[in-house]
Write a structure and sequence with these properties.
This protein is α/β, with parallel strands linked by helices. It has 22 helices and 20 strands. Strands 1, 2, 3, 4, 5, 8, 9, 10, 11, 12, 13, 14, 15 and 16 form a 14-stranded mixed β-sheet that branches. A four-stranded parallel β-sheet has the order 19-18-17-20, with helices on both faces. The protein has a two-stranded antiparallel ribbon with strand order 6-7. Strand 10, helix 7 and strand 11 form a beta-alpha-beta unit. Helix 2 packs parallel to helix 4 and helix 9 packs across helix 11. The longest helix is centred in the last third of the chain and has 29 residues. It is globular. The termini are far apart. Keywords: ATP-binding, Ligase, NAD, Nucleotide-binding. It comes from Cyprinus carpio. One of its GO terms (biological process) is 'de novo' NAD+ biosynthetic process from L-tryptophan. Homohexamer. This is Glutamine-dependent NAD(+) synthetase.
Length: 689
């Protein structure tokens, strides 16, 4: 009958400039797609070189090596009899474009440049690429000689074109074009194109995956069609983590979807779909205006004549996936018994759970990686707790200001996870540092509780925090050596995004690590994550951690009890800080605009003058401490109000912290609000009389 088509999309763990590895993974995905019976394979954006090449895109070597990889793909027997759609940069008329290269049986069918570039958030595509600005226009591109020798073609179509096969028509979108209000799939659908493809490098943010699914479903809900979404997965050399989730939809329903955080380097998602379902859907709901001036006809069919008995994929249930974090050689974490460090610990434990599951499912690559890390070629992980003991070292760094409660909470959580747990007392090191200072100056600083000044109090807290960082790196480098084992450990940090926003941490303290898994996550989301871990992993030790007030435990105890708390030190709760953070970054609010919004949303809790005090306090803390973001430990991007100044939140780090003009505007509004309240109260009082 020639109406059912089998299509494949994929998620690949590509790495910037790893041309050898990237080629291997592309070929593997094509091989799997053919095994599934697919006649079209879609890959992620810029998959040949990797999306995160950054300024390496300027280098001619990058373009050269991409064409060399393309040549290898064209020559490979694996790419025969299947339409292959791969991503790479292409220079046309001395202008660099982010392109899809679509080929079949050693012939390039179309080079499709990206038309709508991503230039927001973490994306800087305009820095390296130009958008193709001629809709529905196709011109000739002269191929490099190395490609001409393989294809026998001198020129190929380049531009905003589509592919027509004997049985259907396909059109391309590239990543951000799906998110744009003028997405190409709208016009393509009205022109009768039945299959839309989207090659993406869409990085993970909390709650973003659901938005992505809704966009894919929406693309075919209005006018029908089949939509394929490909994505990168893993970290390709930067602070972003790509979460996969390749999917296929038809007429507004998801019929196949890949895992969000799979440990597989190559994951192929395929579906067999009936083209008549698209045509019936459109016949009832819309009447496309057929335009064929930019189509490219090929002597190839995606369907077979005898496909009556071929089953088609049906809409499935929504899937839920667990966040994972991958390291390279084992980890060390200072575990304080608080929410933040416990969250980092739970991420490592969840990784161990996923590793054991992947090995049980027969993932040989994951098994090889684990055996390499533990230096045991016969090792086969089966129990997450046992694996955690091999990979994960936790240490509680106690001082005279530490409570028994936090020590016990850290010990109980480590025991439930199975980590190699150490108890370290830092008092000797602290006294040694202060002894050096006293010997030079003749002074011995005191805490505020013992009559010291604010400067002394802060300095004594910072000494403890920084000594913990030094000890963490010492133990990470040498604790395996002390046990007669090879290698060292990666130091993990545990400062959340809200603390980075206000600068509520000591520069070069225990938050300074090799990587900070939770640096892009808010305190409120971390608490939700720990609640999930209690249920999912039966880590009941987390219950007492969630109930305890957040504290740095850097000031003296009173009768053995904690006096210092984080929220008291910051002058606001983490919940309030989360709201403020979103207003600053997402809503683009300065001090005055933020105040104007909060006096309404917080009117049941705070008076205008109290709101003003909180807003001013936040901006003072933020501007005084912004310099800390220039040295903060790298963390993966997760929250859309992150203050990471690497490239997501580009702002000065030296401010006039008085904010005189802005704060005066706030004060004027407070005065007006107070006058209006007094006037309103007076009128009500008079009316009662």
């Amino acid at each position: 009958m020639g109406r059912k088509v089998t299509l494949a999309t994929c998620s690949l763990n590509q790495w910037a400039l790893d041309f050898e590895g990237n080629l291997t993974r592309i070929l593997k995905s094509i091989e799997i797609a053919k095994q599934k019976g697919a006649k079209y394979r879609l890959g992620p954006e810029l998959e040949i070189c990797g999306y995160g090449c950054a300024d390496h895109f300027y280098e001619s070597d990058t373009l050269l090596h991409c064409f060399q990889v393309l040549k290898s793909l064209l020559e490979s027997p694996l790419t025969q009899d299947i339409i292959c759609d791969v991503g790479m940069p292409v220079m046309h008329h001395n202008v660099r474009y982010n392109c899809r290269v679509i080929f079949l049986n050693k012939k390039i069918l179309l080079i499709r440049p990206k038309m709508l570039l991503a230039n927001y958030g973490n994306n800087r595509e305009f820095r390296w690429f130009s958008p193709w600005s001629r809709p529905r226009h196709v011109e000739e591109y002269f191929l490099p000689r190395m490609i001409q020798d393989v294809t026998g073609q001198t020129t190929v179509p380049f531009g905003d074109g589509v592919l027509s096969t004997k049985d259907t028509c396909l059109g391309s979108e590239i990543c951000a074009e799906l998110w744009n209000p003028r997405s190409p799939h709208v016009d393509m659908g009205l022109d009768g194109i039945e299959i839309f493809t989207n090659s993406s490098a869409s990085y993970h943010e909390l709650r973003k995956a659901d938005h992505r699914v809704n966009l894919v479903k929406s693309a075919t809900t209005k006018s029908g069609g089949i939509y394929l979404f490909a994505n990168q997965k893993g970290c390709d050399g930067d602070r972003l983590y790509y979460d996969g989730c390749a999917m296929i939809a038809i007429n507004g329903d998801i019929v196949a979807r890949g895992a969000q955080f799979s440990l597989k380097d190559v994951e192929v998602v395929s579906a067999t779909l009936d083209l008549e379902d698209v045509r019936s859907y459109r016949g009832e709901r819309c009447h496309p205006h057929m335009v064929s001036n930019f189509k490219r006809h090929q002597n190839f069919s995606l369907s077979d004549c005898d496909d009556r008995c071929l089953p088609t994929h049906q809409p499935g249930k929504k899937l839920t996936y667990l966040y994972t974090f991958k390291g390279k050689a084992g980890f060390l974490l200072p575990l304080s018994g608080g929410v933040d460090s416990s969250s980092t610990a739970c991420i490592v434990y969840s990784m161990c759970v996923q590793i054991c599951r992947a090995v049980k499912d027969g993932n040989s690559q994951v098994l090889e990686d684990v055996q390499r890390v533990v230096s045991d070629s016969s090792y086969r992980p089966e129990d997450p707790r046992e694996l955690c003991g091999r990979l994960f070292t936790t240490c509680y760094m106690a001082s005279e200001n530490s409570s028994v409660d936090t020590r016990n909470r850290a010990k109980d959580l480590a025991a439930q996870m199975g980590s190699n747990h150490l108890n370290i007392n830092i008092d000797m090191a602290v006294k040694g540092m202060l002894g050096i200072f006293s010997m030079v100056t003749g002074k011995w600083p005191q805490f505020r509780a013992n009559g010291g000044s604010a400067r002394e109090n802060l300095a004594l807290q910072n000494v403890q925090a920084r000594i913990r960082m030094i000890l963490a790196y010492l133990f990470a480098q040498l604790c395996l050596w002390a046990q007669g084992k090879p290698g060292g450990l990666l130091v993990l940090g545990s400062a959340n995004v809200d603390e980075s926003l206000t600068g509520y941490f000591t520069k070069y303290d225990c938050s300074s690590a090799d990587i900070n898994p939770i640096g892009g996550v808010s305190k409120m989301d971390l608490k939700c994550f720990l609640q999930y871990c209690v249920k999912r992993f039966q880590l009941t030790a987390l219950i007492s951690i969630l109930d305890a007030p957040p504290t740095a435990e850097l000031e003296p105890l009173t009768d053995g009890k904690i006096v210092q708390t984080d929220e008291a030190d910051m002058g606001m709760t983490y919940s309030e800080l989360s709201v403020i953070g979103r207003l600053r970054k997402i809503s683009k609010c300065g001090p005055y605009s933020m105040f104007c919004k909060l006096i309404h949303s917080w009117k049941e809790t705070f008076s205008p003058s109290q709101v003003a005090t909180k807003v001013k306090h936040f901006f003072r803390m933020y501007s005084i401490n912004r310099h800390k973001m220039t040295t903060v430990t790298p963390s993966y991007h997760a929250e859309n109000y992150s203050p990471d100044d690497n490239r997501f939140d580009l702002r000065p780090f030296l401010y006039n912290t008085q904010w005189a003009w802005q704060f005066r505007c706030i004060d004027n509004e407070v005065s007006r609000s107070t006058e209006q309240s007094i006037d309103s109260w007076s009128k009500r009082f008079i009316s009662v009389l």
